[in-house]
Design a protein that fits this description.
10 strands, two-stranded antiparallel sheet, Glycosyltransferase, mainly alpha
Length: 338
């Protein structure tokens, strides 16, 4: 599909000199809704995974500048900026903080440009001093901290990144056995990211038991969210033991989280089942989903905002397009290595 050939073109169209706009009306950016750190941090992740040329070169620096500007001196993070460039909220350790650390960690570890890596590492080192009471925020932060822990010396047991990984693992409740093999009473959002954070933390800390815990969570989640051979992710209302699938509306960001988690599991284990999970996530965008509808606009390269029971949400916001790009990055990496 053409969006895979030019994955950043809609993200460029959704951006200006300040950053990536959050919402779109079909493919047109909605200036009145402004920007958010959540999306610009995600942009930093996907733009740091690829060669530093063309649109990725421009967007990675735009995202890094935005997310660094969102960070307060104490490492907490603001999330919302209006279209005039004014921050409209106060700094916190909510999801924007966790995703900022994720972006900084990936950029520090993987961006081709050494100056970008240095600036990202400085901002990571500032933010990692904080902790969040929210499990998902800590999980997102751990995905960045794991990248930093891989960079640090193996004997750096007391490094700030490793300290955050240990704190995340301590927050995750035990995973029960039986029909409901998940550490929470209900699935909510970013579920696959939580499983990935557990296995990544265990891998970076060389704790095989936690790697196994994260893999068991992901194994159960992928089986639970696979129906008749296609992915059927948890809808916005969450999912409990007595609920039925399919659920709507389904968000592309959940599919991207599954692709990332399966990629991590494949990298750790080499087991082909995880490569199939990545392929299933990519197929969801191509129409192998509960409704049989394609979730991308080949004309623009954008991703649609949600899958409903009988239709798609045709708006092509930043989050959904970033989810499409992230998923296809994972799929292409596996396909090129196969």
């Amino acid at each position: 599909m053409s969006s895979e050939l030019d994955p950043f073109r809609h993200l460029l169209a959704m951006s200006d000199q300040r950053g990536l706009f959050e919402h779109a009306d079909c493919s047109e950016r909605r200036l009145e809704h402004g920007y958010c750190t959540d999306d610009n941090a995600r942009l930093l992740v996907v733009a740091s995974r690829v060669p530093d040329v063309g649109a990725a070169h421009e967007l990675s620096r735009l995202a890094l500048h935005f997310v660094r500007n969102a960070q307060d001196a104490d490492g907490r993070c603001r999330n919302r900026m209006d279209h005039t460039g004014r921050w409209t909220d106060t700094a916190s350790t909510d999801d924007c903080w966790g995703r900022s650390l994720w972006g900084f960690g990936v950029a520090a570890a993987h961006h081709e440009n050494p100056a970008v890596r240095r600036w990202a590492r400085r901002s990571f080192d500032k933010g990692v001093r904080q902790r969040s009471p929210w499990l998902r925020s800590m999980a997102f932060a751990a995905l960045g901290a794991a990248e930093i822990a891989y960079l640090d010396a193996p004997d750096s047991h007391d490094s700030p990144a490793r300290s955050l990984l240990r704190d995340l693992l301590a927050m995750v409740p035990p995973v029960p056995f039986g029909p409901w093999q998940w550490p929470e009473p209900r699935l909510s959002y970013g579920n696959a990211s939580l499983a990935e954070a557990v296995m990544a933390s265990g891998d970076a800390l060389q704790q095989p038991g936690d790697v196994a815990r994260g893999l068991r969570m992901l194994t159960w989640l992928l089986a639970n969210e696979t129906v008749h051979g296609h992915l059927s992710v948890t809808g916005v209302g969450g999912y409990g033991p007595d609920d039925q699938r399919p659920q709507f509306d389904q968000q592309p960001i959940e599919v991207a989280a599954m692709a990332d988690a399966c990629h991590r599991a494949y990298a750790i284990t080499g087991e082909p089942a995880w490569a199939r999970g990545i392929a299933t996530a990519a197929a969801w965008f191509r129409g192998s989903n509960d409704v049989g509808l394609v979730m991308t606009d080949d004309r623009t390269g954008g991703g649609y905002d949600g899958l409903h029971a009988e239709r798609v949400n045709l708006n092509q916001g930043a989050e959904s397009t970033l989810a499409l790009v992230a998923t296809m990055q994972r799929a292409e990496l596996f396909e090129s290595a196969a």
